[in-house]
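Attaching the record inline, Q. Sequence:
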Amino acid sequence: MMNKQLSSGTTPSERRLHELCQKSFLRLWSYSNVFRDQGRYRGHGHGKEVCDTLAIFDDRIILFSDKHCAYPNTGNPDLDWQRWYARAIEKSAEQLFGAERWLRQAPTRLYLDPDCTRSLPISLPSRGTKFYRIAVAMGAGLACRAYHGGSGSLILEPGARRNGNMSQPFVIDEIDARGLVHVLDDFTLDVVLSHLDTIADFVEYLDWKEQLVQDNLLAVSMGEENLVGLFLSTKCAGLGLPERQSPDAKYVIADDLWDGVQQQEWFHALQRSYEVSYAWDRLIDHFAADVLNDEMLSFGSPSTPPDHEKRVRALARTSRVTRIGLAESLIEITAKVKPGELLARTALPQGRSDTGFILIVARSSSAPYSTYDEYRVHRQSMLRIYCLSLKSMRPELAHVVGVALDAEILPDGMFLTRSEDVMYIGSEDWTESIQHEARDMRAKTGVLDSVFRVMSPHSFQQVYEALQESDIQAQPAARKVGRNEPCPCGSGLKFKRCHGK
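Structure, as predicted:
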């Protein structure tokens, strides 16, 4: 599907932005130094850079423009601020609005190189797209700290442009006549992308912040980090926004709110709980790398690269808190499953989510399979049965995502996967004929007969006999084992010298 050589930024600040975006949005949906073919003529010349980083996910597009400008020191604070603002923020805003125009007008003319020979690997949404514009303005941190004290982050005052306060040093108004431009600086770039490090959490924060601004509820925030602190307090600690004394009252976010949040026990507990969730990130990244390198396998019906990307995107749509639960469930059933058995668990949606998950760990065993590939095909079939059964039992779910692994917990506590499969069913894929097929599968195999969320072990042999009598075909996708990788059978040999002969 896709190109293996991707830019990681050309300047230190661009490389830092790339690193943070890759961690938060993952490699399949985040691209640095994207170009348009405007400026090339009959194959000559170079394309023009669209933006420094582009993130695409579902119907959301996030545009980043990075400017690292040395802060002037003329002795005139007002003049220094105006000059830096023009170079670091206004130029970024121009680039961002220009990038948005191009993406709306020519969404298929985006490239990963200045010669415009390598197209953007994934397609842009065709309709209903929402754009987020983010200016990363670096270089003013030390001057801001010397002037105002505190962290050195810029002060956000919606309406400052209208009220004539834009000349006040280190005060910004993110509302442009053309739309809202978020501004992250030397300090807040890391805060925002480190503590809102999934696409779901990041976009939820931007939507929350934009609504606060559009509803005219925010008077001033003494730095973006304090706004993040307020958001996490309402979302994760359930504290809610402070009560306003009158309908016209607005929020003033103090400059010590973020420091106070970091001292709370709920915040420390949240940070500790995050560690296990990165096992889910690593799983997504395994699949994403295979999609980028054209190494996803299809079992049964042929699948296209966009089909594979859609499956993996369903895994990445989850928030950090959801990933904690999913990773904990995978690790728990992996610790309990025995060779030759299959353990499955459902994870049903909480809150506003409309996605249900099937998690399967099936330890490989020599019986009743003659080869590891035969075991994989059967595991694929089981994954499909479970996913279809869940959708048939809970038709209100808009998305059903299934993951099947051959995994184990090593003595040092590491979570090791030997092979991975993923399947996705959306409401748009669901038909009456599939509903009938799902009922037949459940009748033959008895899957999901126990209560939801209760672990249901099934010996491979028990279900294998039922499958042998049916015409069930596997259709999920899987990672391909490299010839020089360890053989998944556990022999210790390279795949090419064992089951890959």
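The radius of gyration is 25 Å. The first strand starts at residue 30 and ends at 36.

More tomorrow.
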